Amino acid sequence: MTKPEILVTRAVFPDVVERLSQYFEVEANPDDQLYSKDELIAKLQGKAGVFTTPSSSITAEVIAACPSLRAICNMAVGFNNIDVAAATQAGILVTNTPDVLNETTADFAWALLLAAARRVTESEHWLRAGKWQKWRYDTLLGADIHGTTLGIIGMGRIGQAIARRSMGFDMNVIYHNRSRVPEQLEARANNARYVSKEELLRTADHVMLALPYSPEAHHTIGAAELAQMKPSATLVNIARGGIVDDAALIVALRAGRLAAAGLDVFENEPAFDPGFLTLSNVVLTPHIASASEPTRRAMANCAADNLIAALGGISPPNLLNPEAMTKTKGTARD
């Protein structure tokens, strides 16, 4: 029996590619080439499935040009790189990889918060530059974490994991979400208290962003929101680029209207705003919040599980558009 053909759009663990090869004819990308839209369309001709990452944009135009495609499996929690509505209309199953990265991402959120608030990277650069000549009472004074108020925007699984870690810092936790989470989850999340976005911004000493990207979430934090925050506050974004207006954030950091920021994601990444490089009060990392080896392997295998199920006629574990199942016939799309 002929195996279905799939495309793996980016380099991934070789053992995961080998595993996929047991089920599919795999066109892999070990050189990790970034495909243009036209290259992606060309490579998807005749492919039944695609194992993709957020760097590959599966637009309505790409979907329309690839009639054989039956499954799009993203190696990420976020899926704003995929036009899910267009995929659903075409009977293409779309999946993501939730849950497997919650704890690792929450760990990294705290790494960014501590580094930004306590000026860790700034102080290391200062030391390496040979500027440490003596102890002074006011050298690189930062902000406390313990006993302060943490504000979390986006209280899904990652937001809740972030909040649980705040117990060790004896923090007061407030959060804003599209809707209030059940009381039992609030209790587990260090007795987090639901507040309006405006109250959170005015009150929090440290603000963490953990919400998914959507058109409605675009520039959740812009100039107006930054103006509401305490000048002593820290902002951390481990969510998605576009949730923060990066240009407005640079202005606020440069003017001292915000003390510090820790950013793992950016608008237009990896071509982020070079203005960040002129600032000492921002910690910058290249979208690595989930980048522990066990977690990235779990993500890759989760995406593989989804693809194997989707093209095997089984509802995938992390199906985002179950309504597309009714549009799919056997092993071929109408």
Could you provide a short overview of the structure?
The chain has 334 residues and is an alpha/beta fold. Helices cover 32% and strands 15% of the residues. The model is unreliable at 329-334 (pLDDT under 50).
Please give the alpha-carbon distance between the first and last residues: 21 Å
How much beta, percentage-wise? 5-15%
Trace the largest sheet across and list its strands: 8-7-6-9-10-11-12
Question: What value does the average pLDDT take?
Answer: 96
Give a quick set of tags describing it:
32% helix; globular; seven-stranded parallel β-sheet; disordered C terminus; 12 helices; 14 strands; alpha/beta; 334 residues; five-stranded parallel β-sheet
Please provide a written account of the structure.
It is a single chain. The strands form three sheets. The protein has a seven-stranded parallel β-sheet, with helices on both faces. It has twelve helices and 14 strands. It has 334 residues and is α/β, with parallel strands linked by helices. Helix content is 32%, strand content 15%. The C terminus is likely disordered. It is globular. The longest helix has 18 residues.
